[in-house]
Structures are given as C-alpha cells and as structure tokens.
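hey
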C-alpha cells in the first residue's frame, strides 16, 4: 500500500424526506423502516463498523430524532428487559449502541446529496472518508467497502462503487466513463454524469451508494453549482476530482461490484429486500418459505 492516510470516518446522509414511502414516513424517518425487524440504517452502520469505520457522522434533518434514539442507550427498555431476564432482546437493544461512535449534524435546507456531504466538512476535516447511502444495502457476505478503502490506499484520490445495470435503469444513477487498470475489479473513472437521459449514458456502469472520498471534495462542493434536479450533486464534484491529479486531491477510481445489493429506496425493491432477508433468517425461513410458496401457488391458480 502507498502511504495515503487511513480511512476512519463514515458519513451517512439521512436527511431525505422519504416521500416515496408516505404516509409511513410522515412522522418516521425512512431510514427507520424495518427490514424484517431491524431498521435499514442499522445495517448501514453495521457495514461501516465491519469495514473498521468506528466514527460515524449522520447528516440528518427535521423529524429524524428517532435515528439518534436508536443508536443511544434506552434505559427504561433495558431495565424492563433485564427485570424479565430477557437477555436475548436486551442484547438486541444494546447492539446498535456499541457499533460505533455516532455523531449527528443537521443539513437544514435539503439542497441535495452534495450539500449533505458538505455538511460533514467540519467533522471530517482533512481526512479521506467513506460515504454510505442508506437506500442501498450491501450484503455483509460481499464486503465492498473494505475493498474500496484498500483501493484508496493504493491509488489515493476518491473511489466509487460501480455496478452494471440494464440500459433502461441508467437514468436512475450517476454513470461513469471508465478505463481499465491492471486490476480486474478496479477501473479508472475518467468522467461521471448524474442521471443521464436514456440513450445518452457513457456506459452501463452505475455508481451505487458507497464512496471513499478525498477531503478535497469539500472545496470542490463549495463551488459546485446546482446540477440535475436543481440540487448540488456529489457526482458533479467527483467529476471535477476525476479530472485532477492526485496532488490536487484528484483521480477517481471505481471498484466493480458484482455482489449482492439491495435497494430499499422504492416500494417494490423494499418489499423484495424484506422477503430476501426473511428467506435468510433461520428463525423465520422454515415457516415463511413454505408459506410464500403456497401463497404464490394459490395466487397463480386464482388468476
Ligand atoms: C444518488 C446519487 C447517484 C447514485 C445513487 C446510488 O442518487 O446522486 O449518483 O447513483 O444515489 O443509489 P439518489 O438515488 O439518491 O437519487
């Protein structure tokens, strides 16, 4: 490894309004919606911790207090469970508290992902950091972030995670122009475009919600004008960094991810994620899977 500074901090933007899940998200942050019985955001913090990032900054907004509570000690609940001798639930309640040191900052105005990342400037300082978007869950068996941190250690600069998506989906993502490196799973990113219209994407390699970012991004974000959707886009700032040398905080590399990713950002994929996670749960699958099969058979016959 070259001698680039180690990555120790994670930034998790969690200030979105969650409009796709209304009315559920009227008073509950979308990050707290459960995947079976664990809020989606806990998986994200678990992933950061598993990659050695024990300092997690959440960028939140109004109505997000339950996220803070989730990662804090719940004395009354713990006392009640302790009194009942329910050790298993007690440890489930304590688990999120022990994962990492949590910090919170508020975004104020929702001015886009780039702006959310800019809110982390003071906390992050001059170190490279990881950024994890809560809508994307990465299967713990396919560690991506660790590899991205390794790639940052080798090449410096910033690192994005890229996944090949079908043509009709490119307009939902940041899309990269890439060129090969000597490593099979690593590419140089020479250009990036946020949510290109169908037919105009430079490739099918989409940026998914994991980043390792050079602190030079802050100075770039401060000068990045609103882009697609009138929002300050992280993709646009990374595009600027892709055109710079390492000495100027630049170069962007991509790790090609071929593992399991679950999108919880829209209703259909959220439902699919819940079913997939339930299918892997030893306490639920033995009853859930035969029921699901029967349900689908019955459904097919009824049509
Ligand atoms: C954001 C980014 C986009 C990226 C995507 C990954 O978009 O702006 O570049 O591809 O996350 O999930 P969002 O899904 O928040 O609209």
């Amino acid at each position: 490894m070259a001698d680039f500074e180690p990555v120790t901090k994670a930034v998790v933007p969690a200030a979105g309004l969650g409009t796709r899940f209304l009315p559920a998200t009227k008073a509950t942050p979308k990050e707290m919606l459960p995947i079976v019985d664990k809020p989606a955001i806990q998986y994200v913090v678990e992933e950061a911790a598993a990659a050695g990032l024990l300092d997690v900054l959440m960028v939140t907004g109004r109505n997000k207090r339950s996220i803070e509570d989730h990662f804090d000690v719940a004395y009354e609940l713990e006392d009640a469970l302790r009194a009942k001798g329910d050790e298993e639930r007690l440890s489930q309640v304590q688990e999120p508290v022990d994962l990492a040191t949590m910090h919170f900052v508020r975004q104020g105005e929702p001015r886009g992902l780039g702006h959310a990342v800019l809110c982390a400037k003071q906390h992050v300082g001059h170190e490279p950091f990881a950024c994890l978007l809560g809508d994307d869950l990465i299967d713990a068996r396919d560690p991506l972030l660790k590899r991205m941190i390794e790639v940052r250690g080798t090449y410096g600069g910033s690192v994005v995670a890229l996944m090949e998506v079908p043509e009709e989906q490119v307009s939902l993502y940041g899309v990269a122009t890439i060129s090969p490196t000597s490593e099979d799973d690593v590419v140089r990113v020479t250009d990036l475009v946020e949510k290109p219209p169908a037919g105009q994407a430079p490739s099918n390699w989409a940026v998914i919600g994991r980043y390792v970012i050079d602190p030079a991004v802050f100075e770039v974000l401060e000068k990045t004008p609103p882009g697609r959707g009138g929002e300050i886009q992280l993709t646009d700032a990374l595009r600027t960094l892709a055109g710079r040398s390492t000495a100027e905080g630049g170069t962007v590399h991509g790790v090609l991810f071929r593992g399991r990713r679950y999108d919880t950002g829209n209703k259909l994929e959220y439902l699919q994620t819940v079913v997939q996670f339930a299918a892997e749960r030893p306490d639920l699958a033995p009853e859930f899977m035969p029921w699901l099969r029967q349900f689908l058979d019955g459904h097919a016959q009824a049509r």
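Residues 97 and 241 are 35 Å apart (CA to CA). DSSP finds eleven helices and 13 strands in the chain.
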